[in-house]
Amino acid sequence: MSESKTITRLYCDADLSQGLTVALGPGPAHKLRAVLRARVGDEVLLFNGRDGEWRATLTDLGKTKASAECQDQTRAQLAEPGPWLAFAPLKKDRLDMVVEKAVELGVERMIPVLTARTENRRLKMDRLLQQILDGAEQCERLTVPTLSEPIPLEKLAQVWPQGRVLLVAAERRDCTPLAEKLPSLTGPMGLLVGPEGGFEAQELDGLENLPISVFVNLGPRILRAETAAIAALAVMQALNGE
Question: Domain extents for the chain?
């Protein structure tokens, strides 16, 4: 028995509706032509985070541009509320892992925070955004997580909504394990994970004084920062039915 062919899924910023022909930029054109060996007439799935997901037919495919005509909507647009993730940027490969897995685990917003021990203070935001788009394409999300500009840790409370719980992964503080604490909390939540080496004591003291913060630990072992972020998000989503 032959396996059904997987239809390529692409993010497209243009509006999507039946019969509309939309332009695809150099990135999607290169992927379709050089990587996937697609041809005019092939079907693709398009989404923009606003209009749901659409089956479309390639009408033009060049080296630097392509176009596709929307045929029918395969999925209506849905809200996809999820946890927020505030994190101290790591070095390249480990940062890539955090961003990729955060998208797959349903994170709604990512906020890079600069702490005393942050390793990477010069983020390539365009590159991170492309990783987010690639991840959303792959995991079949209908929405695209928001990526905020980096901010100092001490300013996080200024941009964090008062109605959203801030779970602080505090590995060296005496606090309740995450899985035990979550059932007692309600409403939207987010996670803050520190850098390699952890937060400084003064930073934790400042966070502990915030009315929105809840300190949690992630078990008896000290985890690397990328492991902590991914593991904690997985627990949060699992207990939330995701």
Answer: 8-75, 84-239
Q: What is the DSSP letter of 14?
A: S
Class of domain 8-75: mainly beta
Task: Say how far apart CA 166 and CA 89 lie, in whole Å.
Answer: 18
- The answer to whether the CB of 83 falls within 8 A of the CB of 107 is yes
State how far the Cα of 167 lies from the Cα of 163, in Å rounded to an integer: 13
84-239: in CATH 3.40.50.1820: no
Residue pair 53/74 in contact (Cβ under 8 Å)? The answer is yes
pTM recorded for the entire structure = 0.92
Chain position carrying tokens 């939309």: 22
Distance of CA 62 to the CA centre of its chain: 30
Residue-wise pLDDT for 7-23, tens only, equals 999 999 999 999 999 99
In three-state secondary structure terms, 124 is: coil
Question: Which residues in the chain show pLDDT less than 50?
Answer: 1-4
